[in-house]
Design goal:
157 residues, mainly alpha
């Protein structure tokens, strides 16, 4: 009963989340860079539709990251994914999701009144949050696919 979390993880052969999440964050970052550059170019040309540009680019970042992880056979967890990692990952997704709520709740953002430097700074901040969310969702997807592939060979009774 006096075991630490590290001892519990070693006994259960569980990968520490920060080590397991690094390849997924790299995939999400590679997926988000061209989308963010294109998004910034669109905002420089026509900043009036900022909410729609953000929503489209966030969907593209998450979709591209999930597709790359789903189509990759190399991105799999080497250990088991435990409850603590699931709770901490979902908490991080919730926190970063809350950070993304203000632009969605304020529909009357007048982009012409916001200086372009601030607009681009907001875009980089929000894209970073979405990239982190996409990497966590991709890690959850890879774990689910890995578990399903392990269960696929055994029959359930």
């Amino acid at each position: 009963m006096a075991a630490s979390v590290d001892e519990y993880r070693r006994a259960a052969n569980i990968v520490v989340m920060r080590g397991a999440a690094k390849p997924y964050f790299k995939v999400a970052l590679i997926a988000s860079l061209p989308i963010s550059l294109l998004q910034s170019a669109v905002l420089l040309v026509h900043p009036a539709n900022i909410i729609w540009v953000w929503l489209f680019s966030w969907s593209a970042i998450i979709g591209t990251t999930l597709f790359k992880v789903w189509s990759s056979s190399q991105l799999r967890l080497s250990g088991r994914f435990d409850l603590l990692q699931m709770i901490s990952g979902m908490t991080a997704v919730a926190i970063f999701g809350v950070l993304l709520m203000p632009p969605l709740l304020v529909r009357d953002i007048v982009a012409e009144q916001i200086p372009m430097v601030e607009l681009l700074r907001m875009t980089v901040l929000y894209d970073t949050c979405v990239t982190f969310i996409a990497s966590l969702l991709a890690m959850f997807l890879a774990n689910a696919l890995h578990r399903r592939s392990l269960e696929g060979g055994t029959e359930r009774t």
